[in-house]
Specification:
globular; alpha+beta; binds biotin; 7-stranded mixed sheet
């Protein structure tokens, strides 16, 4: 990732003032965490790496992070989070991702709670972590985003085994290499836009934007949560991130997180 090219393309007011670009890290979420605890970064700081040796996904999963082809990015959010619901930041990120894909001519779908799919396959995931610093006596939030940009079908087939047919990339979908700096800058600009909306209008505005992009209300879905499977029609998602499903026996199930199965 070319730092100066990226910097020139960023036009945000809030997020991305400070950007750190690395060749290889354990996980961008971890590096951002350490930089904050060391007192070296402020709200809005961004860490990007060309590769990760211990990229992490939701539910202790591994995020396969080959070098030089994808985006691995983490952002630090400090103000206002005490007053907000944490899932709102995952929703905010999904909105920004969907807009960014659309700027590259790609239609994408949001999969509750935190995935982005293209043609029914995963192209991006968000890992939002709330932390507390005893040193600064403050809560802070790390938003980690992984995007499959130029990873090839051959790599996916070779390295991702049983999930290989559930994963795609921008290159696979669009048929050519994507400019990673351009994508990253647009994503940061869009994240900044939604963050500004959140600051001015609060969580409800983000939930509304997210719901208008989600379009699953009224659909019959299945959600696996640990070893339970919930089936029902989507009633709503609330500002705390809970999914409400109306099951066959007309009961409402309230689910905080799980894997939607199509
Ligand atoms: C998921 O879909 O389970 C979330 C995946 C999040 C991956 C990103 S890559 C950048 C950041 N660093 C990590 O270790 N994880 C997130």
């Amino acid at each position: 990732m070319n730092f100066s090219k990226l910097k020139k393309l960023i036009s945000s007011n809030n997020l991305g003032d400070e950007i750190f670009v690395f060749d290889k890290v354990s996980s961008t979420n971890e590096v951002l965490d350490s930089l904050y605890e060391e007192g070296r970064i402020k709200h809005g700081a961004v860490v990007i790496s060309d590769s990760q040796t211990s990229g992490r996904g939701r539910s202790e999963r591994i995020w396969i992070s080959p070098s030089g082809v994808n985006l691995y990015i983490s952002l630090l959010i400090i103000p206002d989070i005490e007053s907000a619901n944490i899932p709102i930041f995952t929703f905010l990120s999904s909105c920004a991702l969907k807009d960014t894909f659309s700027e590259f001519g790609m239609d994408s779908d949001i999969k509750w709670p935190n995935d982005i799919l293209v043609s029914g396959k995963k192209i991006s995931g968000v890992l939002t972590e709330l932390k507390h610093s005893s040193k600064f006596n403050k809560n802070y939030l790390i938003i980690g985003i992984g995007v499959n940009i130029n990873i090839t079908k051959e790599f996916i087939n070779k390295e991702m085994n049983e999930i290989s047919n559930k994963v795609t990339s921008m290159k696979i979908e669009l048929g050519s290499d994507i400019d990673r700096e351009k994508f990253t800058a647009k994503l940061i600009n869009n994240l900044d836009h939604y963050y500004e909306e959140f600051r001015q209008h609060g969580t409800i505005k983000i939930l509304d934007s997210w719901l208008s992009k989600w379009n699953m209300v009224g659909q019959f879905i299945r959600v696996s949560v640990d070893d339970r499977l919930y089936k029902g029609v989507v009633e709503k998602v609330d500002e705390n991130g809970f999914l409400y499903l109306r099951t066959d026996n007309n009961k409402i199930e309230r689910i905080i997180s799980g894997d939607m199965i199509f």
